[in-house]
């Protein structure tokens, strides 16, 4: 390992694929929590530390250096990660999602590859134990049901559903299946956690395949999944809930109203499949959580 012994495990894992000069600069942050690292070709690296942006003016990466980062992420086997790359990201073994910007090569409407990569966005997951406890204790454990968690990017949707999944599996005799399309929910540390609860995880499965496969083979009581992005996701979710399985999902939106203004989610609105909505926002470093019922009425929290 090339990094300072004082650094956390999640920082260690990031340093496994970053160049030495950036590692040295990040080491000076003295174990402050990293949220994001944004690398743009020949531009100063930008990092988000505990919600605050910092520009590393002395550090920039060339296109060749960015390509070497990608190669390290892929463990020197681009072919093994080809499907992820075509979808615009690579997920490391420890759950860091690295978004890729560059030239997308298309043929007959399908993405074949990405070339001339110009920037990377490293999203660093944070396991915040207990973030869902109040919602679980006050509402969910008494009623169960399906839940939609909404927020802007980077505010804590995935962190919340990960913790809620563990709460359900730990405290209830229920089969919880995680359909983890981008390998972000069930972090390596969560999968290997030595405790009296566990999750069944389908990694890199899309919603339609994952929901169908789970119902056919894993007998789920609850399915937990990441971001809803298209009408097909919505249809698969409705079919699953109507089939008797609760679903906990996330989506990008500032509000319930904003989410349902998108036509591709009209199926969900008309079907009324969600029993609870959790809306997460941030004011400075403070995370705010609001709970709404199926009729969009705000609940005391």
What's the overall geometry? globular
Number of strands: 14
Q: How many helices does DSSP assign?
A: 11
Major sheet size, sense and barrel closure? 8 strands, mixed
CATH superfamily membership of the largest domain: P-loop containing nucleotide triphosphate hydrolases
CATH topology of the largest domain: Rossmann fold
Number of domains: 2
Radius of gyration, in angstroms, nearest whole number:
20 Å
Whole-Å distance between the termini?
A: 44 Å
* Unreliably modeled segments: 1-10, 189-196
Corresponding CATH architecture of the largest domain: 3-Layer(aba) Sandwich
Helix/strand-derived category reads alpha/beta
If you had to describe this structure to a student in words, what would you say it looks like?
β5 (97-107) and β6 form a beta hairpin. The strands form two sheets. An eight-stranded mixed β-sheet has the order 9-8-10-11-7-12-13-14, sandwiched between helices. The chain contains eleven helices and 14 strands. 34% of the residues are buried. The protein is α/β, with parallel strands linked by helices and 301 residues long. Helices cover 32% and strands 32% of the residues. It has helices at residues 9-15, 20-27, 63-73, 82-86, 133-143, 157-171, 188-191, 207-217, 231-242, 256-260, 266-271, and strands at 34-40, 44-49, 52-60, 89-91, 97-107, 110-123, 147-151, 176-180, 200-203, 222-227, 246-252, 276-283, 286-293, 298-299. The chain folds into two domains: 9-123, Beta-Lactamase (2-Layer Sandwich); 133-299, Rossmann fold (3-Layer(aba) Sandwich).
């Amino acid at each position: 390992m090339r990094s300072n012994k004082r650094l956390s495990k999640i920082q260690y894992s990031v340093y496994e694929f970053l160049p030495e000069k950036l590692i040295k600069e990040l080491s000076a942050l003295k174990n402050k929590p990293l949220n994001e690292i944004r690398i743009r070709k020949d531009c100063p690296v930008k990092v988000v530390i505990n919600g605050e942006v910092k520009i590393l003016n002395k550090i920039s990466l060339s296109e060749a250096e960015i390509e070497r980062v990608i190669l390290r992420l892929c463990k020197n086997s681009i072919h093994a990660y080809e499907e992820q790359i075509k979808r615009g990201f690579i997920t490391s073994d420890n759950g860091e999602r690295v978004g890729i910007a560059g030239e997308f090569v298309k043929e007959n409407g399908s993405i074949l590859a990405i070339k001339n990569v110009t920037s990377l966005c490293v999203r660093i997951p944070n396991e915040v134990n207990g973030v869902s406890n109040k919602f679980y204790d006050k509402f969910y454990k008494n009623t169960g049901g399906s839940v939609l968690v909404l927020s802007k990017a980077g505010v804590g949707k995935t962190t919340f559903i990960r913790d809620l999944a563990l709460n359900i599996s730990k405290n209830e005799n229920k089969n919880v299946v995680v359909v983890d399309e981008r390998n972000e929910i069930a972090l390596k540390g969560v999968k290997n956690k030595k405790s009296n609860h566990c999750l069944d995880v389908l990694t890199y499965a899309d919603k339609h395949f994952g929901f169908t496969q789970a119902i056919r083979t894993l007998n789920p009581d609850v399915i937990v999944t990441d971001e809803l992005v298209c009408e097909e996701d919505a249809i698969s979710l409705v079919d699953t809930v109507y089939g008797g399985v609760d679903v906990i999902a996330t989506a990008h939106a500032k509000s319930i109203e904003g989410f349902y203004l998108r036509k591709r989610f009209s199926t969900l609105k008309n079907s009324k499949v969600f029993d609870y909505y959790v809306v997460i926002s941030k004011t400075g470093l403070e995370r705010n959580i609001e709970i709404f019922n199926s009729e969009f009425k705000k609940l005391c929290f």
